[in-house]
C-alpha cells in the first residue's frame, strides 16, 4: 500500500511571538494536495499534533477543520499518535467513535499492541510514553529507561506480526544517532528517551516524529518526516515536506515530497543603512521571518521600530561586532590561565596604554616579581 508520513504539526506554535496558524493551514493544504495527487491509501501523523498540552481555542478549531477535511471530506484513513507536546488524556476524547470513520488515534501504550491492518500492511501505533507506563503494563519493576521499555514493546509487537504482511511502526521518540535542532523540547534525562536503531530492525518502515529535520536519521527502514514548518533559526536551511512510503511483503520504498513555506525563515546581514535602503529590501521577500545581523558599531536610536516598519516579521537582531567582542573576551579569559606573570603584566599594559613595554620596564617587572615571589616563599 501507499501512505503519507508526516509529523510534528505543532498546531498553535508561535515563532518568537508570531502566530503561525496561517502558515500551518497553508502547509496542511499542500500535504493534502500531495496525498490526493499521489493517491495514498492512508495518512500517518507521528505525534505532536498540538504544540501545547492545553492548546488554544484557535488551535483546536484549526486542527478540527484539518481532520474534517482530511478524513471526512476527502475520506483518507488517518493513523495518528500523541507526542510529548500533546495531552494524551485530552486527545483521547472521541477516540472510540473516530475509528468509525477510519481515524485511528492512539494515546495510550496498551493500544499499540492491536495493529491497524490496511491492505497488505500492519500499522503499530505507539504514542509517546514514559518508562513507568511500560513498567506498569508489563508488570516489570526492572524497566527504568525507554530503551528497556522498547525491548519489551517490540517483542510484544513481533508476536502480532503476520508473515505475509509488511510491518510499520509509528512512534515519537529519539533514536540513537539522530540530530536535534533548537526547536525540539529536550526530553533526555540521563538518556531516558534514546532508542537504539537496532531495536527497530524487524519493522519494514518506522515512521518517526519528534525531531524536526528529515535528515536527522538516515536509516534503511526508519525516517523522521520532520515538521511541515521551520520552527527555529537552526532549521533555516532544512527542506520541509513529507515521506511517501510504498510497502509490500517483500520491499519498502520511500520518497521525500517537498512543500514550500508560505513565509520562510531567513537571515540577512548588513549595516543599518544597507538594510534600510530600498534597493536592498525590495530584492528580498520582506514577509519572511527574519533574523537580522547588524554590522554597525554605533548606537542607532529607535532601531527596532525602524526595522519593523520595513520588515514586519523580525524574529531577532544581533550585532556582529558584539559577538566578535564576546568571542575575543572569551578567548582572552582562556589564554590568561596559561600566561606567566610577566606575560600577564605585559598584556595588561598593552591593553591599557596601547603600547608595548620597554626593555627597561620588562627588567623592572621581572625583578619585582622575583622579589615578591621570594618574600612569599619566606613566609
Automatic annotation (TrEMBL):
Tell me one GO biological process term: DNA replication
The reply to whether Transcription regulation figures as a keyword in the UniProt entry is no
Residues in Calcineurin-like phosphoesterase domain copies: 1-213
Molecular-function annotations in GO: 3'-5' exonuclease activity; endonuclease activity
Per UniProt, the keywords (alphabetical) are: DNA recombination, DNA replication, Endonuclease, Exonuclease, Hydrolase, Nuclease
Q: Which InterPro entries match?
A: Calcineurin-like_PHP, DNA_Repair-Maintenance_Comp, Metallo-depent_PP-like, Mre11_N, SbcD, SbcD_C
Superkingdom of the organism of origin: Bacteria
Q: Which CDD domains match?
A: MPP_Mre11_N
Indicate the segments forming the Nuclease SbcCD subunit D C-terminal domain, all copies: 261-352
> Which NCBIfam families does UniProt cross-reference here?
sbcd
What does the protein in this record do?
A: SbcCD cleaves DNA hairpin structures. These structures can inhibit DNA replication and are intermediates in certain DNA recombination reactions. The complex acts as a 3'->5' double strand exonuclease that can open hairpins. It also has a 5' single-strand endonuclease activity.
Name the family.
Answer: Belongs to the SbcD family.
Can you state the subunit structure given in the record? Heterodimer of SbcC and SbcD.
Protein name, as recorded: Nuclease SbcCD subunit D
What gene codes for this chain?
sbcD
Amino acid at each position: 500500500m501507499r501512505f503519507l508520513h508526516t509529523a510534528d504539526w505543532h498546531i498553535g506554535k508561535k515563532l518568537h511571538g508570531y502566530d503561525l496558524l496561517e502558515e500551518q493551514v497553508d502547509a496542511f493544504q499542500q500535504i493534502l494536495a500531495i496525498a490526493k495527487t499521489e493517491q495514498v491509501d492512508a495518512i500517518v501523523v507521528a505525534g505532536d499534533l498540538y504544540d501545547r498540552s492545553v492548546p488554544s481555542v484557535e488551535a483546536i478549531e484549526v486542527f478540527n477543520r484539518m481532520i474534517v477535511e482530511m478524513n471526512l471530506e476527502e475520506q483518507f484513513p488517518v493513523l495518528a499518535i500523541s507526542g510529548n507536546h500533546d495531552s494524551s488524556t485530552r486527545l483521547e476524547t472521541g477516540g472510540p467513535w473516530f475509528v468509525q470513520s477510519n481515524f485511528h488515534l492512539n494515546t495510550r501504550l496498551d493500544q499499540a499492541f492491536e495493529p491497524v491492518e490496511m491492505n497488505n500492511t500492519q500499522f503499530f501505533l505507539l504514542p509517546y510514553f514514559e518508562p513507568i507506563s511500560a513498567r506498569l503494563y508489563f508488570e516489570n519493576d526492572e524497566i527504568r529507561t525507554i530503551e528497556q521499555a522498547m525491548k519489551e514493546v517490540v517483542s510484544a509487537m513481533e508476536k502480532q506480526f503476520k508473515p505475509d504482511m509488511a510491518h510499520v511502526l509509528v512512534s515519537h521518540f529519539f533514536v540513537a544517532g539522530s540530530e536535534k535542532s533548537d526547536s525540539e523540547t529536550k526530553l533526555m534525562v540521563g538518556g531516558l528517551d534514546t532508542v537504539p536503531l537496532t531495536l527497530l530492525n524487524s519493522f519494514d518502515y518506522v515512521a518517526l516524529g519528534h525531531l524536526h529535520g528529515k535528515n536527522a536519521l538516515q536509516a534503511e527502514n526508519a525516517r523522521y518526516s520532520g515538521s511541515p514548518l521551520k520552527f527555529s533559526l537552526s532549521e533555516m536551511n532544512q527542506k520541509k515536506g513529507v515521506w511517501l512510503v510504498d510497502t509490500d511483503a517483500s520491499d519498502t520504498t520511500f520518497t521525500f515530497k517537498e512543500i514550500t513555506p508560505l513565509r520562510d525563515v531567513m537571515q540577512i546581514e548588513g549595516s543599518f543603512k544597507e538594510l534600510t535602503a530600498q534597493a536592498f529590501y525590495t530584492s528580498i521577500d520582506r514577509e519572511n521571518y527574519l533574523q537580522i545581523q547588524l554590522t554597525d558599531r554605533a548606537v542607532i536610536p529607535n532601531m527596532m521600530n525602524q526595522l519593523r516598519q520595513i520588515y514586519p516579521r523580525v524574529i531577532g537582531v544581533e550585532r556582529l561586532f558584539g559577538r566578535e567582542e564576546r568571542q575575543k573576551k572569551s578567548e582572552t579569559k582562556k589564554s590568561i590561565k596559561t600566561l606567566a606573570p610577566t606575560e600577564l603584566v605585559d598584556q595588561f599594559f598593552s591593553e591599557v596604554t596601547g603600547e608595548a613595554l620597554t626593555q627597561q620596564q620588562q627588567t623592572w617587572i621581572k625583578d619585582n616579581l622575583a622579589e615578591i615571589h621570594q618574600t612569599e616563599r619566606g613566609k
